[in-house]
Amino acid sequence: MTSSLYKNSKSCNNPSVTGQVPPILKGGACMKGGIYSDERCPRCSKPFEDNEKDGLQCPSHPDQRVSTFKVKFKGLCRRFSRYHDAKDLLDGWRWEERQGKFNAKEYMASKPQSVLKQAERFLEIRKADLRPEGYRRYVYHYKTLSNHLGDVSITRINYSILEDLKYDLLKRYAPKTVYDTFGFLKTLLGWCIEREELKELPRFPKLSKKMEDFIKTVETMTVLELADLVKALEDKFGVSAQAPM
Q1: CA dist 207 to 67, 140, 174, 204, Å?
Q2: DSSP states of 140-208
Q3: Distance from C-alpha of 45 to C-alpha of 60, rounded to nearest angstrom
Q4: pTM value surpassing 0.85
Q5: Tens digit of pLDDT for each residue in 107-136?
Q6: 64 in helix, strand or coil?
């Protein structure tokens, strides 16, 4: 619910959407956030207050209501045109906070904890330590992941998401490519743990045992042994490993 409302909301003019970590608002009420409005009562100019039922109203003139709302929570601010949408978002954020799962970075417009942003930063920092061929392989896997997990926060990746990713990739790529892409993702998430952006690795789905064993065997073979293997497969199945001209 929270994520869908976030997509339909508008960010307030707030520095928290620029990519900087927002400061935690001070004060008892602000710590749990609230629903507010820029509008004021046309009869007495007092600010409207949340009745926590169906909207904001003037404490002195209850018949006066607002038509625009904004949710403020730990430095984040989102605008809504409907009260119940604003309340649902605030309730969702409060629930995450009670569970110890709330992370303001996940809701910034710049999405600093998305797979896309983290992978870009990883490649930028590690480029100098990688050989050109290794760097090109990483970029290839980065592009593959970006097409499938680009906007997903690294803290939201779980077994279900990874199993769906495996299924989708195996429909388009060879098992070895999928295996290597998952290897890159593990490396990326391990780097995120080192930088304290992530607490632990999620559980990863496995490829078939036969495929994993075959890949491990191929990885230990010499170039000549690989050439012999390719030739044997061509002879057995009547196919050619050479790309058509």
Answers
A1: 53, 20, 12, 10
A2: HHHHHHHHHHTTSBGGG--HHHHHHHHHHHHTTS-HHHHHHHHHHHHHHHHHHHHTTS-SSPPPPPPPP
A3: 10
A4: no
A5: 877 788 899 999 999 999 999 888 898 899
A6: coil
